Amino acid sequence: xxxxxxxxxxxxxxxxxxxxxxxxxxxxxxxxxxxxxxxxxxxxxxxxxxxxxxxxxxxxxxxxxxxxxxxxxxxxxxxxxxxxxxxxxxxxxxxxxxxxxxxxxxxxxxxxxxxxxxxxxxxxxxxxxxxxxxxxxxxxxxxxxxxxxxxxxxxxxxxxxxxxxxxxxxxxxxxxxxxxxxxxxxxxxxxxxxxxxxxxxxxxxxxxxxxxxxxxxxxxxxxxxxxxxxxxxxxxxxxxxxxxxxxxxxxxxxxxxxxxxxxxxxxxxxxxxxxxxxxxxxxxxxxxxxxxxxxxxxxxxxxxxxxxxxxxxxxxxxxxxxxxxxxxxxxxxxxxxxxxxxxxxxxxxxxxxxxxxxxxxxxxxxxxxxxxxxxxxx
Length: 378
Known about the structure:
Elements: E1 2-7, E2 12-18, E3 21-25, E4 27-30, H1 42-48, E5 54-57, H2 58-63, H3 67-73, H4 76-80, E6 86-89, H5 92-101, E7 106-108, E8 113-116, E9 123-126, H6 128-138, E10 142-144, H7 156-183, E11 193-198, H8 204-217, E12 221-224, H9 237-246, E13 252-255, H10 261-270, E14 274-277, H11 279-285, E15 288-292, E16 310-314, H12 334-338, H13 341-349, H14 353-377
Parallel strand pairs: 4-14, 5-6, 6-10, 10-11, 11-12, 12-13, 13-14
Antiparallel strand pairs: 1-2, 2-3, 7-8, 8-9, 15-16
């Protein structure tokens, strides 16, 4: 289901084949956390931006609108009217973050996670088996095992405990996955890809151990679990680079939550294939835009990811009030083709939703074009 087309020297480009279409790697997925990318319709995502896949969140959809509604709709694709591949994460990161921040909202046991909904306070139980069942009910093309993602600043002993639980739960997820394949009579061609998640914080020995044990279980791909930045906000370059080397070459490598354009370029150079993050849409809604510089490729120069290939501007800055230039002269998105910086500044000053929508579209187009340039120059 994943074929590597080119390799140079660690980075690679390939094709993923799913029941809802092919995806060229590397690729970026915006977070359609609750079943939508805020303020942007599917037509824009597919035709204007050219996205090949998006990511939905099991935890949020389970709580609202709930699985009964999605099942009645015929699955997430029909509910969202999205025809291309969908990837669902397990919801583990959200649940565990909730509990780590406020232990009164839940607890983690060996068998399950017990938590209260931040929406209405209702009590819920999430097990590795249930996480897989929910993702099958969603009908996604790619799914992720339930894992234990501890904060990176936890002591090594506690992170090691999370690694052990992650491995045990991955084994339970894989068994439930195989059970659901048989129960639902899913053909080999239509089966969703399944990803294990590599934990271990900033400790390479734990990351290596976790990867080796997950590979023994066997997954289509492996994700970099927890945050890829340390407690001081620094990119954990060595850990991210070396973890990619632990993963078998023929498996997909998913850099969960990555990230900024420069971090994506670095991760791609280490051999990671897939990326997702809220950054382009969230930053756009706050008036921060990514602009490309006049360089043919972000990979030019000495060293991957070191090239100064883009800049950011904050359109809320008063200096753009009378700036009638194109927002980004190298971009052909709906914003850059039709409006000036002055007009976008006016929209934000007027707190008009159109401004946030246009800025988010532009940033997603920037990310989509970045992925294309990485594929072309590899």
